[in-house]
Specification:
This protein has 285 residues and is α+β, with helices and mostly antiparallel strands. The chain folds into three domains: 85 residues, Rossmann fold (3-Layer(aba) Sandwich); 65 residues, Dna Ligase, domain 1 (2-Layer Sandwich); 82 residues, D-amino Acid Aminotransferase, Chain A, domain 1. 35% of the residues lie in helices and 25% in strands. The longest helix has 14 residues.
Amino acid sequence: MSKICIVFDRLRSEEKMLEKQAIELGHDTIMLDAKITQFNTDSQKNDYDFGDIVLERCISYFRGLHFTACLEFLDVPVINKFEVASNCGNKLIMSLCLKKNNIPTPKTYFSFSADAAKENLEKVGFPLVLKPVIGSWGRGVMPLKDKDTVEAMFELRELTDGPHDRIFYLQELVKRPPRDIRVITVGDQAIAAMYRKSSGGFKTNIALGAEPELCDITKEIEDVCAKASQAVGGGILGVDLMEDEKNGLVVHEVNNTVEFKGLSKVAKKNIPKEMVEFALNSARR
């Protein structure tokens, strides 16, 4: 019998589904709240019971990333690995990983001050999409279609002036249908996919009200998602695709702790089962 540890900072439906599936498969399961777990530089692996492998499922990117670093310090196997979480959690790094591995992705411009970003906009022209390099659920994503919007958004960044507000990530506005495709990959294999249709606005995030609809996994989707997974380091991921009118499928994002509650209701495969079995098989290697 194997033992799996599921680390969380807020217990969502996804973590409960993973626990239920692990128990049904006959495995011992530990549910561990990252917020109340402590480490120090003298910590040893045998000070804790992390089972055979950890599934890191924190909502907070920074909490999960640093928790993963502590686990790897103790030589505890964890999915996803620190390198993968780091690659996926920062959009700039993720875009570089995709492009370096020749994966189709929207053209993206990086600037390191508001003035340099404005110069970029003047050279490239409108529209572009401004995205925070750290963030999820479509928060802070804004299409820039004129100078007034630019001034307002850049002024807001000057006011908040967080460390990531000084990194300007500007992406071409892809001409596409009013939807994107979310694909869940497990061990580089696409196991489930859905269309996320816009509910009338620019964004297609389910968390913001976009409508999910089952998407058949074509050979093209399968291939591009496998390459995207490999580019960031593999594991259990959410790959987001857009159907570019000119260039076909492009990958605009790869997510580390992917949500799957909505998709699991209509998916042909048992998503939490695939995740648990992959994790435990990884631990046995």
